[in-house]
Amino acid sequence: MTKMNAPRSSGFTLVELVIVIILIGVLSFLGIGLFANRGAFSPLLATQQLASATLLAQQAALAGNVGNTLTVSQESDDFVFIVGADTVSEREFRLARNGASFNGGGTSFPITFNEFGRPDTGGNRLFTFSGDSTSTVCLSSLGAVYGGNC
Questions:
Q1: How many domains does the structure of the chain reveal?
Q2: Above 80 in pLDDT, residue 10?
Q3: What is the pLDDT of residues 52-81, one digit of tens each?
Q4: Model confidence at 35, in pLDDT bands (50, 70, 90)?
Q5: d(CA 50, CA 138)
Q6: pLDDT grade, residue 19 (50/70/90)?
Q7: DSSP secondary structure letters along 18-42
Q8: In the chain, is it the N or the C terminus that has fewer CB atoms within a 10 Å radius of its CB?
Q9: Distance (Å, whole) CA 133 – CA 118
Q10: 11 in any annotated domain
Q11: How far is CA 149 from CA 9, 55, 69, in A?
């Protein structure tokens, strides 16, 4: 007499499948939170953009180039950082405002750097970017840009 073995089934149980679906749901819920608020104004990004544009204008001033001017302005949709005094040497950087505002001496604030890389502001200059959050950025009389009050 021969003995018949039941065929072994391979696969996942219903409990295992439900647990995997729940884990995928939880991970996707957490992941959406990471990317959902990407349109908001970033004060850190504004600080970094201002520091980068300032450094470019300072380097041009130290090299004796005509691109030694930085203009920070506020347009309807963007903050605009323009490095250079004419259309040949001009470089423009834009940062989406998303409802944020800028307080740094009007809607447009030009800063010229001397041959030592120091701004012509006559002292420290405080920029305030405000929206959902507020960021203050200081441009020191020596040309350093850092977050916080002067």
A1: 1
A2: no
A3: 888 888 888 888 877 788 888 888 778 888
A4: low
A5: 10
A6: very high
A7: HHHHHHHHHHHHHHHHHHTTTTS--
A8: N
A9: 30
A10: no
A11: 69, 19, 23
Domain membership flag for residue 64: yes
* b/e map 92-123, b = 16+ CB within 10 Å: ebebebeebebebeeeebebebeeebebebee
To the question of pTM greater than 0.90 for the whole model, the response is no
- Residues spanned by the domain of 70: 43-147
- Examine residue 7 and state whether it is found in any structural domain, yes or no: no
The closest of 71, 55, 132, 127 to 97, measured between CA atoms, is: 132
Residue 104 located in a structural domain = yes
CATH number at residue 70: 3.55.40
- Distance, CA of 144 to CA of 138 (rounded, Å): 8
| Cα–Cα distance, 150 to 147 (Å, whole number) | 9
Q: Are 146 and 138 in contact (CB under 8 A)?
A: yes
49 SS3 class: helix
Question: Each residue of 79-137: pLDDT tens digit?
Answer: 888 888 666 667 888 887 777 777 755 567 788 888 888 888 778 888 887 777 777 88
